[in-house]
Amino acid sequence: MSLWFAPLLLWGNTVRELLAQLNATLARGLPCVYCAVVATRGSTPQKAGAAMLVFPDGTQAGTLGGGCVEAEVKRRVLHDLNPASGPEAFTFQLDDDYGWDDGLICGGRMTILAHPLQADSPSAGYYRELLPLLEIGMGFTEAVVIAETTGLAVGDRYLFDATGQAIHCSAARPVWDVIAAHLPPLASRRRPEVHSGVAYLPTHPRITLLLVGGGHVSLAVARLAAEVDFRVWVLDDREKFANADRFPTADRFFVGNIGGTLREVVPHLGTNTFALIMTRGHNHDEEALYHLARSACGYIGMIGSKRKVRLIYDDLIAKGIEPELLARVRAPVGFDIGSQTVPEIAVSIVAEIIACRNGASLGVRGECV
Q1: Could you give the CA distance from residue 140 to residue 119 in angstroms, rounded to a whole number?
Q2: Are strands 193-195 and 198-203 parallel, antiparallel or unpaired?
Q3: In Å, what is the CA distance from 80 to each residue of 22, 121, 122, 148, 294?
Q4: pTM to 2 decimals?
Q5: What CATH number should be reported for the domain whose range is 208-357?
């Protein structure tokens, strides 16, 4: 690959940002290599789905986990591949041969697919189709051929929507029925898996985080949540606490009476919405939980002391809210990390909602739907 151009500004590391940069690079007629972790086994520095762009001058955006594996991938794509060559899969065993100097002797295995691209590459259209799906956040599954034993071309990519319907394929001769035979249902929140030399990479629907209350903790939570790819909505009865100037990372705002607004909003919320109740007072929190307790939200959390939570629960049960509905509420919200400051509280809360989104256990106190 020639080193004749300066790379674009290196954006953040989310796959959505990387794909946006990939498409912008190709639109300018410039080459790059899209490297993605497509399969892992055991302990590895990154899991399937992590991605990195490599530019001809050796710069990069994103990461495959750093260390010797990332450096070796860059070395190979810069010296051995060119935009006219096809995709190539590299497999690394993280043992004594790989990782001693970088401390990566974890025994795991990583398969990384490197795909050289330029504007006229036949498969460039695949990535143009992929980006809007990520931006909309409805969820999809990629099926990527990673082994020659399949009889298919390594690097062929098949794209399915959230319902399993075929959308796009980079293969010259697609075999949709063969690929679809092992397609995991996206609704079951399955993790990446490999069947018969094909890696199935689910991207689950993007989670909307509804913040009820626009105070200091909500502000800190919104910043962190946006960085880890939650879509953020803010509800408050005061316009000065629910606006784009105060919450530049939020996508939508609701200003109005908390109970009345939630009465209208709650019927439209589903499992892909997480709700956090963090208003300025006990009565507002109770009113918010009254409406959210019966919602279909995949997660409900409420800030406050154990005493406050107990009093609110007693009041709501007296008003007819079933105890089993309250049992799934995370209150007090957040993992116990001994938080003292607002930023620390925000970290504990965002860690918990990440765990819920990723299917990790939250313990006996409240669970995800």
Answers
A1: 24
A2: antiparallel
A3: 20, 18, 20, 19, 58
A4: 0.79
A5: 3.40.50.720
Mean pLDDT for the stretch of residues 298-322: 96
Upstream peptide bond of 343 is cis (omega within 30 degrees of 0): no
- Over 70: is that where the pLDDT of 105 sits? no
Stated as kind and residue range, the H or E segment containing 177 is helix 176-180
**Distance of alpha carbon 183 from alpha carbon 141, whole angstroms:** 8
Give the other-Cβ count within 10 Å of 61's Cβ: 22
Phi, psi of 261 (to 5 degrees): -65, -45
**pLDDT band of 175, cuts 50, 70, 90:** very high
Contact 199, 144 (CB under 8 A): yes
Q: How many helices (H) and strands (E) does the chain have?
A: 10, 15
Domain ranges (residues) in the chain: 15-117, 124-203, 208-357
Q: What is the pLDDT of residue 60?
A: 92
How far, rounded to the nearest angstrom, does the alpha carbon of residue 166 sit from its chain's CA centroid? 22
The label of the residue with tokens 């679809």 reads 180
